[in-house]
Design goal:
By secondary structure, this protein is α/β, with parallel strands linked by helices. The protein contains twelve helices and eleven strands. It binds pyridoxal-5'-phosphate.
């Protein structure tokens, strides 16, 4: 079968060992074998987030389902939320918060500009918020936000910080515990290099306390992190049938990631990004982001060049 070289943020090409895991014989989700594998997946995910196993949740679904789980579980009607929007996915985050009844104040940046932590400080001085929503790497324009600086401000003002790490986890430095985030979520199909279909979430002890002390019931069945935390503690509890082959393949992808070494992988992405940026700049193209990410490089193209490039990529993507 034709195997295209995927030069997109994700899904990515899969290692043969990951592909093989997708074809393993079926096992039941209540079997001891699956529970053992799932528990290992949780340990590997915690290592990726640089947090403890008790602080991670993995469920079937894409990155958006991780985003919705975080919002549905931790945002209550009329909560004031500050959304830092540097592109399409930042806006999606704000929209989901509104669906769950939040009063969202948007700080919208022109495409290509990253969040200025001073703006966040100013906003928190003016008004009280429960949470900040921010995207680590905005896939649509390659913007690389200094979320660790935003987290420092959030901590100073006692505000929860939610981070979308769909395009960064595994490819760019991210220290969940050290930098003091409250919730983060990723999808399996990007820097983790697994098939799409696993949402990987980290939740802080502080956020868990909020979860326990909500004023209202969570208005969702699947997107209820309280239920999922119970399943993570004891994977024998049935909540919904997991996409077993995807979760097993994600476990193999994470094993490979940790074999390479997380820091080595971050370094590899940075080196590759530097080369891509150099090449594009030498071609006379301008980069879109003021602070370019190590995982996605976006250049400004006129329509004729974009069409030619697309034609070239389509022709040359069989290996
Ligand atoms: C930054 C970011 N957030 C959220 C999403 C949504 O993730 P998914 O498509 O896995 O639902 C994406 C997908 O590309 C993304 O790049």
């Amino acid at each position: 079968m034709r195997s295209p070289l995927l030069m997109i943020p994700g899904p990515t090409n899969l290692d043969p060992q990951v592909l093989e895991a997708l074809s393993w014989p079926s096992i039941g989700h209540t079997s001891p074998e699956f529970h053992e594998e799932f528990t290992e997946l949780l340990y590997l995910t915690a290592k990726l987030y640089k947090t403890k196993k008790e602080n991670v949740i993995v469920y079937s679904g894409s990155g958006t389902l991780g985003m919705e789980g975080a919002v549905a579980s931790l945002i209550e009607p009329d909560d004031k939320v500050l959304a830092l929007i540097t592109g399409y996915f930042g806006e999606r985050f704000a929209e989901i918060a509104e669906i769950y009844g939040a009063k969202v104040k948007r700080l919208v940046y022109p495409s290509g500009h990253d969040v200025n932590p001073e703006d966040v400080k100013e906003a928190l001085e003016k008004d009280e918020y429960k949470a900040i929503l921010v995207t680590h790497i905005e896939t649509t324009n390659g913007v690389y936000n200094r979320v660790e600086e935003v987290a420092k401000v959030a901590r100073r003002y006692g505000v929860l910080i939610f981070v979308d790490v769909v395009s960064s986890l595994g490819g760019a430095p991210f220290y969940f515990d050290n930098d003091g985030y409250d919730v983060a979520f990723a999808g399996s199909q990007k820097c983790i290099a697994a098939p799409p279909g696993a949402a990987l979430i980290a939740i802080s002890d502080r956020a868990k306390e909020f979860l326990e002390n909500r004023r209202t019931e969570i208005k969702s069945y699947y997107f209820n992190l309280k239920r999922w935390l119970k399943v993570m503690k004891n994977p024998r509890i049935y909540l919904a049938t997991p996409t077993i082959p995807i979760l097993r393949a994600t476990k193999i992808a994470l094993k490979l990631l940790h074999k390479e070494g997380l820091e080595n992988r971050w370094r590899r992405h940075e080196q590759m990004a530097k080369l891509v940026r150099k090449g594009l700049t030498e071609l006379g193209l301008e980069l879109k982001a003021r602070r370019s990410s190590p995982t996605i490089t976006v250049a400004k193209l006129g329509k004729p060049i974009a069409e030619k490039l697309q034609e070239y990529v389509l022709k040359s993507t069989t290996y």
